[in-house]
Amino acid sequence: MEDLTISLVQADLYWEEPNANLAMLEERIWNLEKTDLIVLPEMFTTGFSMNAEKLAEPVGGKTFKWMRQMAKQKNAAVTGSYIVKEDKNYFNRLYFVYPDGSSNEYDKKHLFTLADEHETYVPGDKKIIIDYKGWKICPLICYDLRFPVWSRSQKTGNDLYQFDLLLYVANWPDTRISAWDTLLAARAIENHSYSVGVNRIGTDDFPKDYPGHSSIYSFKGDQLEFSTTDTVITATLSASDLGEYRSSFPFQADSDDFKL
To answer: Could you give all domains of the chain from N- to C-terminal order, each with its CATH number?
Structure first.
């Protein structure tokens, strides 16, 4: 396990304009220096839209191919969620695309009922753990952040830690941004892992205002990176610092066993 360089793309998304968003994001990705992982917001092609019938893409469609192209050209993994139609169902689906073109996927479990997301999309029922460059990464989506059991690291055999990095992609509005800041730190502390949140900025057609606050928190809950502007945050996560802290303070050994 070596250090991991991660780039958080905090952007003002064009409302329900996939082509414009892909072009804008591609330019930002092209301008990145060397990085290992590029993280895009929730529904990065459209904004947080319930207009799935119009905007959904088939499995393996245009945006997935675009992610594969970006991953290959930058020799970095690319992740984020967008609207996918599979069979007759719509999903808020996150893809984690590796530089070699292979991928993992996660469907948002906790759908935001206050915006009737549950009336449009089908919830996921599986948490995934991604192995990448020696890191175990748990990717989740927006509203998932409010539910600590779903985000909780579970002990397996002699392995105390299910993951090293919790990763949240979001469209989180300014009216509840204090919860975003607090919960990202809490998830880091309780899991002894890095916690990363990538939010958008700007305004959508609900209308909701999004203030950014994309952040990186250390395994101690310290905020390492933070921004409220239209920007890309790039930082390196230290594997040795994480390992040393877990060895010095093995609180996870005393954690409760549970089943979801």
So the answer is: 4-254 (3.60.110.10)
Reported as a single tens digit per residue, the pLDDT across 128-176 is 999 999 999 999 999 999 999 999 998 887 789 999 999 999 999 999 9
- DSSP class of residue 21 equals H
CA angle at 188 for the pair 185 and 191, rounded to the nearest 5°: 145
Contact 79, 94 (CB under 8 A): yes
Q: What is the H or E stretch that residue 188 is in?
A: helix 177-191
Contacts of 178 (CB under 8 A, 6+ apart): none
Q: Beta strand 165-169 with 194-198: parallel, antiparallel or unpaired?
A: parallel
Residue position matching structure tokens 């591609």: 26
Angle value at C-alpha 238, between 29 and 11, nearest 5 degrees: 25
pLDDT tens digits for range 248-258? 999 999 888 88
Q: How far apart are CA 35 and CA 32, in angstroms?
A: 7
Residues in contact with 219: Cβ distance below 8 Å, sequence separation at least 6, in sequence order: 188, 189, 191, 192, 193, 194, 241, 242, 245, 246
Mean pLDDT calculated for residue range 106-128: 97
Which residues form the catalytic set? 42, 108, 142
Given the DSSP bridges, would you call strands 103-107 and 231-237 parallel, antiparallel or unpaired? unpaired
One-letter amino acid of 222: D
